[in-house]
Amino acid sequence: MGIGLHGGGVGVIKFLAEQGAKILATDLRTKEELKESLELLKDLPASQRGEPINFILGKHRLEDFTKTDLVIKNPGVPEDSKFLAAAKKHKVPIESDIGIFFELCPAPIIGVTGTKGKSTTATLIAHLLKQKYPQVVLAGNIRSSVLENLSRISKDSVVVLELSSWQLADAKNHKKSPHISVITNIFPDHLNRYSSFEDYAGDKKLVFKFQDEKDFLFLNYNEKNLRDLANEAKSRVYFYSPQGDDLLLMKDWPSLNQEPRLGAYQKRKKIYFGINQEEVCDLKEIKLLGRHAINNILAAVSVAKLFDLENSDIRLALADFRGLAGRLELVAEKKGIKFFNDTTATAPEAAMAALEALSDRWPDLKKRLILIAGGADKDLEFENFAKKIVHSCLGVILLEGTATPKLEKEIKKFLGQEPEKNFALFERTRDLGEAVKKAAALAKRGGVVLLSPGCASFGLFKHEFDRGEKFNEAVRNLK
């Protein structure tokens, strides 16, 4: 249920076909809309699947959910779907690829979740561990299905999974959590899908809910709502922190039912590990931008040290890591203008982190920074984001979407409070290519153009990666 455009549904179909299953794949999108995904399935050998795959596209049919042995839902399908309700009524089991993977994976799992930073953290953990463990497998919420990786996983492998709140919720009936769990942060997101922030956070906490005393949980000590989770854990808790002095002084240390452990932490311009203050590396060796990136690095280093990686190997791997596509990615520099693609900033806090990262790197940036923001609404608040925009940017171009009027209203409110602050550019558009042209013309030499929407992408784009690709294309096409 839900073939999708990110590769997850395609991976599930390929896996099931290899098992000889009889498959019906259904999606509300049309054949044309799913062209990219269907192209990946057209050469699936008939000998593998026994019977042709039956595709029902552009709609779902109730009978398909009641006359079947098993429904495997895409994580994007909401729990209140009437089709899932029909399956439950007819006692048809509902599964997910993560749930099946939890049952079949023979190797220990490192699970990474969080509102933002989970992709970078998971990828960085895998990148570090490969220095010592050749059989590292990275999978999860990274535009593919974990089931595609099962055939290459043995008991000697190390599996790193990026896990969304939806994936964790879909697998909760299995009552399994990863052996090692990492939470990067939890702030409001997807409130168009969840009834409250507490419900959303509750799904995130599933990453450690079923752990026991033999398992490990890594939490960001600098995030109070994460620090407070330590008492809910049965597993061994490690804290990592960008404010190492507070950690070492046990400032605001929670009253735990267990002895707390120190992971990696920053003191001045260096990263240390553990109560013995073992020096791991110097921050000047790291390529990633921003304070939020330091948090991701500290989480990854903490896990790497648990696996006994040498500091020299960690330093080499960190120096070699340049980040992921669409995450504050420097895509080009043309005529002295730097173009950054941060399309995966689909919540206001993520976009604010990008503005802070660039402002830290170039303190006078507000005279030269043009932001491209706006898009679809997830029932989030934009007041703080708008304030940050007014304080940090020379101009802003807003992409049309259901959230954009809310964001524009908040920006105008803060502009009214600061009459001396005049944006050189404040526009709304449906054309990302036009937005890039106007931003580049205004930024001039020495300026920065940043795509960091703070909103979802649906409406104008297939998904956030499509938005990012169109931004990159527009930058390439600049004269």
Quick description:
The protein is an alpha/beta fold. It is 36% helix and 18% strand. The strands form 4 sheets. A 9-stranded mixed beta sheet has the order 6-7-5-8-9-10-11-12-13.
Question: Could you characterize what this model shows?
Answer:
36% of the residues lie in helices and 18% in strands. It has helices at residues 8-18, 35-41, 46-49, 62-66, 82-89, 97-104, 118-129, 165-170, 197-204, 206-209, 224-227, 244-248, 291-306, 311-320, 348-361, 383-392, 404-417, 432-443, 464-476; strands at 24-27, 54-57, 71-72, 94-95, 109-113, 136-140, 158-162, 180-183, 216-220, 236-241, 261-267, 270-273, 278-282, 329-334, 337-341, 369-373, 395-399, 425-429, 448-451. It has 3 domains: 8-95, Rossmann fold (3-Layer(aba) Sandwich), CATH 3.40.50; 98-320, 3-Layer(aba) Sandwich (UDP-N-acetylmuramoyl-L-alanine:D-glutamate ligase), CATH 3.40.1190; 329-476, Protein-Tyrosine Phosphatase, Chain A. The chain is an alpha/beta fold and 479 residues long. A 9-stranded mixed beta sheet has the order 6-7-5-8-9-10-11-12-13. Strands 14-15-19-16-17-18 form a 6-stranded mixed beta sheet, sandwiched between helices. The protein is built from 19 helices and 19 strands.
